[in-house]
Automatic annotation (TrEMBL):
Membership in a protein family: Belongs to the fem-1 family.
Pathway: Protein modification; protein ubiquitination
Entries under Gene3D superfamilies matching the protein: Ankyrin repeat-containing domain (1.25.40.20)
The protein's name: Protein fem-1 homolog B
ANK repeat coordinates: 72-104, 105-134
Source organism (scientific name): Culex pipiens
Record bears the keyword Cytoplasm: no
Length: 134
């Protein structure tokens, strides 16, 4: 077995062991999946392994804090857009993430990217048919 294969198996078993529950909760009312956590923090390799090895529900919603506001109904794509992680956005889109999935306040990934003026993310999402009129 190659070293990378061993590492991938270890990460998969670690994730399964640590996150047998589909969600985990932080003290400040944030609730989110491992995929949302990795997307929010910009952990590309973890997102990749989760997508390829565990095939999680890409539209599973979480409750996350951005700029001091609690955002309910955020998907992994929304948090990646809000945090400015274009490489993770590309990976999520390649795996079929819904470009127009919105939070409970009707905020889409495009809108999340607009808050920080991330034209690169906005262009990518629009080029992949995200609805800018939502």
């Amino acid at each position: 077995m190659l070293p990378f294969d061993r590492l991938r198996l270890w990460i998969r078993s670690y994730i399964m062991e640590k996150f047998l529950e589909p969600d985990f909760t932080e003290e400040d009312r944030q609730v989110y999946t491992p995929l949302i956590a990795a997307a929010m923090r910009g952990h590309y390799d973890v997102v990749h392994i989760l997508l390829t090895q565990l095939r999680p529900n890409l539209e599973k919603e979480g409750c996350v804090k951005f700029d001091g506001h609690l955002i309910e109904g955020a998907s992994a794509l929304w948090v990646a857009a809000g945090a400015g992680h274009l490489n993770i956005i590309k990976l999520l889109v390649e795996h079929g993430a819904d470009l127009n999935h919105h939070t409970r306040n009707l905020s889409t990934p495009v809108r999340a990217a607009c808050f920080d003026g991330r034209l690169d993310i906005i262009r990518y999402l629009v080029d992949h048919d995200a609805n800018i009129n939502f």
